[in-house]
Every structure is written in C-alpha cells, then in structure tokens.
Design goal:
two-stranded antiparallel ribbon, globular, 12 helices, single chain, mainly alpha, 52% helix
Length: 321
C-alpha cells in the first residue's frame, strides 16, 4: 500500500513537471504563433489586391506592417488623411501621363521618411530644377503639390522609358539610377527585389518593404481600426505635409535631403542659447529662416507654438542660437 501511494505521488509529480514544461513551451512560442497568424492574414490580403505589381511578402514586410498599425498608427492616420485628400489629383495626373496607377502609393512611402523635408514627392534638388521647379532663398516649389506633381510625373515618365519593370522605376526613384544600376551589377542583374534589398547595397533599400506596407495600409487600414485624419490646408487648399514619422523600422535609410536645406538635427534646446526675435518678411518661409539661423523647422515651431508651417509677414518669431 505504501509502495502504491509512492507510485501515485511520483506519477502526479511527473505529470505536473510535464505540464509545466509544455506550458513553458506554449508561452515562448505564443508570440511566434501570433506573428505567424498575422503573416497569413497579411499575405492573403496583399494577394487579394488587383495590382500590376508583385508584392512578395516576408517577415520584413510583416515587421513594418505591425509597426505602422501599432506604435505608428497615429502617423498612419495622418499620412492616410493627406493621401486620400490628394489621391484623386495624383491618380488623374498618372493616368494622363499613361503611368501605372500603382505609383499613386509612392507618396505614402515618401511621407514615412525621416527628416526636415515635408514636400509630397521628396524630389532631390537637382531633379526638381531639371524638371522646371523654382528653388531659391525666396521660394521652393517642391512644397506646392500642384507644381511638384507635374515635375515628379515627368521624372517618373523618364524612368519608365528606361525601365519596363515597375519595381525598377520605384527603386530608381527613391535611390537614383546609378544606385540601382550598381545594385543590379552587384547582384548579377537579379529581378528578385529581396536579393536587391539584402545584397544590393542600396542607400534607401527601405523603399521595398515600406512601399508594400504603404499599399497594405492604404487598402486595409480599417481592419486595424485606423481612421484617416483630415489634414490642415494651405491657402491654396492643398494639404500641409508636416509629419513626424515613426523612427523604427519605417524611417531607416531615408531619402537624402536637398542640398539647400538644413540638415536634420534634433530640435535645439533653449538652455544656454541666445534669444533672437525675428520679424518675418515678405517671401519668408520656415525653410529659409531655419537655414539662415542653422536650426530646424521643428525647433522654430516648438519655440513659437506653431501648429503648421504657415507664417505671415510682420509676424514675430523667437529663435534660440
């Protein structure tokens, strides 16, 4: 009887140990299982879209989607608001130029880049000037959606004459033709965008997962309970694009800022700095003033409680140097 009791206790103990072991395995694998379930849903949704571009899914895209629908959901709501407000005009311009409708999602990616630039198409200085935009100390037409869009469309048309593959056009737009050509040589002219991502040494390789994420979020934002926010408008009724993008993983390897704009830095602090009162002149904008005093637009807005980039002649601005 004593032996039987011992065996029962020993069996219960072994059973408890096995149960504890299996429970620990469940806990450690739960996150992976959840991610796996997400991956299945994300893949199915992307495959359901009737688009003329391959959207090859992998864990990198999954990481971007989970981030932008989670920690970056507020940014997603703001960028979606701008995207949907200007979408009709962009699609119409693409159609008139006989360019693929899938390029409408390109600004969605460009708004995810980190930096002081807040123009819709993120056109580099040289490209913008080449396609007819006026850029000087007084004006920068890249910030005008209705002027910058024709320039961006012309640039995309030029790329489409060189490349027949839509991914080549998109990657070249975000990285430049020389960078894409170098990446192709480095990867033996591969057509696999993930080989280009891993081995091509592209300066802005994030275009690949972020562009797929942009398409996903523009089509399935409601499934993540994200509501697009109405953007603020300029006097010409175009959207003011002033966003603070999430830092990871979306904003890695962002488009290089234009040469005539101040470098991206952390907003300056007031402590131990000289206070300057600047009177806004006719033709001034925040980019010009930031460059003049070597500070960021974000700093000027913070110091003066500005909700957007609109300023008026005669307005007093506080600047710390």
């Amino acid at each position: 009887m004593q032996k039987y009791t011992y065996l029962c206790k020993n069996t219960r103990l072994n059973g408890f140990i096995i149960w504890l072991f299996l429970f620990c395995i469940y806990l450690t694998s739960f996150g992976q299982s959840a991610d796996f379930a997400d991956d299945i849903v994300f893949t199915k949704r992307l495959n359901s879209l009737n688009l003329n571009i391959d959207l090859p899914y992998n864990e990198i895209v999954g990481e971007h989607i989970r981030f932008i629908t989670g920690q970056g959901s507020l940014f997603a709501a703001k960028s979606l608001g701008i995207f949907f407000t200007e979408r009709k005009y962009i699609v119409s311009a693409l159609k008139a130029a006989k360019l693929p409708k899938e390029l409408q999602y390109l600004p969605m990616f460009l708004m995810q880049t980190d930096g002081i630039r807040t123009d819709f198409w993120q056109l580099p200085y040289i490209v913008a000037v080449k396609y007819g935009l006026e850029i000087s100390d007084e004006i920068d037409e890249r910030f005008d959606i209705y002027k910058s869009t024709p320039a961006a469309i012309a640039y995309l048309q030029n790329l489409s004459e060189k490349y027949s593959d839509l991914w080549d056009i998109i990657i070249a737009y975000a990285n430049g033709v020389p960078a894409l050509e170098s990446a192709k040589i480095r990867t033996n002219q591969t057509k696999d965008i993930w080989v280009l991502y891993e081995q091509g040494n592209l300066p802005n390789k994030t275009i690949i997962p972020a562009f797929i994420t942009s398409i996903y979020i523009a089509n399935f934002y409601q499934s993540h309970h994200i509501t697009p926010l109405e953007p603020q408008k300029n006097e010409d009724n175009t959207s003011i694009i002033y966003l603070k993008p999430p830092t990871l993983p979306i904003a890695q390897n962002s488009v290089a800022p234009a040469k005539n704009l101040p470098k991206t830095t952390a907003p300056a602090k007031k402590e131990d700095k000289k206070k300057i009162t600047y009177t806004v002149k006719s033709g001034d904008n925040l980019t010009k003033i930031a460059k003049k005093y070597n500070v960021t637009i974000a700093s000027i807005q913070k110091w003066n409680n500005l909700k957007n980039d609109r300023i008026n002649a005669g307005q007093k601005l506080i600047i710390y140097q």
